[in-house]
Amino acid sequence: MDHDPRAQAPYDERMTRPTAAFFDLDKTIIAKSSTLAFSREFQAGGLISRRAMLRSAYAQFVFFTGGADHDQMDKMRQFMSQLCAGWDVATVREIVHETLNNIVEPLVFDEAVTLIEEHRLAGRDIVIVSASGTEVVEPIGELLGADRVIATRMEIVDGKYTGNIDYYAYAQEKARAIEHLAATVGYDLAESYAYSDSVTDVHMLEVVGHPFAVNPDKELRRIATANDWPILAFVRPVALRRRLLVPAAKPTLAALAVGGAMAAGGVMWASRRKRALGA
Fold this sequence. Notes:
globular; alpha/beta; 11 helices; 7-stranded mixed sheet; two-stranded antiparallel ribbon
């Protein structure tokens, strides 16, 4: 699994340019923070204390209710990164893989899975772009049949997390990573799509020709309305295995951690779906 897009050969402009659909993960594909959802399992595995689990549960509540501003998210990021200092990387990955289906499946939005399937049938690559850590995002991406992921990376020394962040895939950095990936793979961003719920991802939405606000926070809704971006409502969590009717484009995730853990069918969706996939 290649984790450095710069290791690839540059895109040959004589080729037909591919397109992609870029999806934020938390509250866009799944209904809450992908990282914080594993708090109970991390405690059961001896990685965190009950007190830390309760604190992360509170952070998840703030996140889910849409009350987390930039400063709060930064504090959550610092808390989660410091919390995992000293954790064994292999143990974290084992816990995530063993519990992924039970945790993530009931949280996946039916409308998001439908869009992923339709974009794949239209020949577009599926790229998940998340501020959560690669240890969580890559397995979820594989479950969804994504072609690539862009995610946060924690520093690892001697098989353990140091508590430092190598790369934080957040806010404007998501847009930079998408542009770097497009230059490497050759994506035509003007003909590509992007989906997110948060105003912190406005830069990510601006770099594609077809941006969509999904369950947007107040500020993103204002920006989307001002720019005439479609606003989608995802409201139906489903079991993922029952929804994956179209096989993944690849048997396993071709993950690209583009830079650089943990960071912290509605009516409108139905009426906008044709517009969403019209180009």
